Amino acid sequence: MSGIPRFTGDARPYPGGDPYADYRTADFPFAHLPDLADRRLGASVVAANDEFFAERENLLIPGPARFDPERFGHKGKIMDGWETRRRRGADAGTPHPADDDHDWALVRLGVPGAVHGIVVDTAHFRGNHPGAVSVEGTCLAGTPSPGELLAADVPWTTLVPRTPVGGHAANGFAVRARQRFTHLRLNQHPDGGIARLRVHGEARPDPRWLAALGTFDLAALENGGHAEDASDRFFSSPVNSIHPGRSHRMDEGWETRRRRDSGHDWVRYRLAGRSVLRAVEIDTGCYKGNSAGWAALFTLDATTGADPTDHTTGWTPLLPRTRLQPDTVHRFPLTDSPQAPPATHVRVDIYPDGGIARLRVHGSLTEEGRRRLTANGS
């Protein structure tokens, strides 16, 4: 966790004006990875021991927490986060909570995976944030209930040890454990409020489910696809383009700035595994005056030793430069074309710039791809 700033202690009382003016944050080295606890991926806070002041579900809302200084309810200040009541000791002689007293919330990840970093965001919780937090992870098959998750025989791995945190701050933690997790337990010591939880990592879906599907979207984040890199992410991240479902707004896709040179933009994806492709969809939904003008697709098989980061060699053309229409789903069957070689990566070049809402790459894993996926997903 070296190199990541630590924020401790209270923030100043709200001074008026921009509530984020004195917000403490940093550039975290894992922030480019997708948030496995994104509500849009199906993540959920399945239980919490206390949510007296603010509901646990707020933890996973996309976007930053909001603050309205005038908003109060019957229980007090309404906060955009998860906030528990103040803990007390056993009696007048011991008014303070015991050292091991704490509140907890159980989080089901939207996509199981290896966790690289966690952000416990206490935005707008200035003097009512927890003194410390800890995070644990476990991997359970199926859809366990809160009671099953809390059973005594469930093994939990410490991802973040009990660590002091600051109020009104993005408290970031690098995670060393790289095994697959399906659920997290967020603990706050002893009580208080947390605005958001972000869990950055790499998706590792259930290989048995993908084997049962046979043909599926190999680029989808929920199936283990990954947006490795892009030429530009000025308006929005390329990770958005492999989210589930269709986009409903422009900021739910991948959009680049306007180019003022003779170049073009691109995004490179790592597929769920070595695969044979059957069809591709390029969706420019919600991009009307700013959709990409043309697109070309290329594939690469990294198992041959080819370097995906070198865009000059090893790439096989899959789709020639093709005109795209605004706000449209473009479908390209590949079964009528000469069969493309197996691929581990796909690159989309757009000309000259613009937006793509979704990319779908339908196909089936090769035998080698299935073996590797099973080894990584177990």
TrEMBL record:
- Does the keyword Acyltransferase feature in the UniProt annotation? no
The reply to whether Nucleotide-binding figures as a keyword in the UniProt entry is: no
User: SUPFAM superfamilies from the entry?
Assistant: Galactose-binding domain-like
Keyword set for this entry? Hydrolase, Purine metabolism
Domain Allantoicase residues, every copy: 42-203, 224-364
Q: Transmembrane stretches, by residue range?
A: none
Q: Which InterPro entries match?
A: Allantoicase, Allantoicase_dom, Galactose-bd-like_sf
Q: What is its EC number?
A: 3.5.3.4
Q: Which Pfam families match?
A: Allantoicase
Which reaction is the catalytic activity of this chain? Answer: allantoate + H2O = (S)-ureidoglycolate + urea
Write out the pathway annotation from the protein's UniProt entry: Nitrogen metabolism; (S)-allantoin degradation; (S)-ureidoglycolate from allantoate (aminidohydrolase route): step 1/1
The protein's matches in NCBIfam families, at most eight in alphabetical order, are given as:
allantoicase (TIGR02961)
Family, per entry: Belongs to the allantoicase family.
Q: What is this protein called?
A: Probable allantoicase
Per UniProt, what is the name of the gene that codes for the protein in this document?
A: alc
